[in-house]
Amino acid sequence: MLDSSNRTVFFVSESTGITAETMGHSLLSQFPHLDFTYIQRPYINTQEKAHNLSEEISKVSQEQGFKPLVFATMPESDINKILDDSDCHYYEIFENFLDKIGHDLHTKPTRESGLSHGLVNEKTYDARIDALNYTLKHDDAMILKTLDKADVIIVGVSRSGKTPTSLYLALKYGIKAANYPITDTDFDKHDLPDALLQNREKLFATTIEAKRLHEIREKRRPASQYSAIQTCKSEIKKAQQLYNKYDLIPMDVTHQSIEELSAQIVRKLKENDIITIKPSKDL
After folding, report:
1. What is the pLDDT of residues 156-177, one digit of tens each?
2. How far is the C-alpha of 179 from the C-alpha of 161, rounded, in Å?
3. pLDDT of 51-82, one tens digit each?
4. Which among 196, 179, 188, 178 is positioned nearest to 246, based on CA atoms?
5. Do 129 and 85 fall into the same domain?
6. Is residue 283 part of a domain?
7. What CATH code is carried by the domain that includes residue 219?
8. Among residues 147, 130, 129, which one has the least CA distance to residue 138?
């Protein structure tokens, strides 16, 4: 009997595919009892590429005995039809909205490729590059002396989602995001470094369930003291004690994506009028 609990999913786009991937992951999160194998196929921007991909999709379908799922952002009609005719379950994300939006706006969509990934303006682009450079330099507390230039400082135990969230904030919103891993030195002192405390209004704390942290660390350093469940429990507890000391309310990253965590941070920044945020169209 074929195992239908693991299904193959393609994320397809005429450009980077990030929109299709983000939407697909969000939708499939509602099916936690299933396992998915993900395949990214960006830059399918010619009919020849579309036909080749269609053959690949059909081969997967024949080998597995189940049609793969295909999430696509493909406004170009001819390419879209080639993929829609493939041996798959096809979900073109734009298709459900473009015609209705056009109807409501009393105009027709252009259906041209690449428009959602165009450069908005040079100033916005430069701001995002500056934010990304800053974030990379301030990953894992590599530099503390310029934390006053940060818009956001994310703190938490090692492997609690700080780096990917920081990078997403920089790329998507042009936010200069530093992050700091709380270490044994901090636990022993029961204190955070002065550089962090001088920027307390920028601090965003993270926490995570011990079992999930153990799983993540096991992939990095299997069967080590670092990944041991007791170590994870101890560090999470000590981190919470530090948060309590400084009235920091942590964001639980156990079941949240980097997009969801970033949205929480952006909401808080807007509520406090800390920064004006203009999200990029490129992600």
Report:
1. 999 999 999 999 999 888 999 9
2. 10
3. 999 999 999 999 999 999 999 988 788 999 99
4. 196
5. no
6. no
7. 3.40.50
8. 147
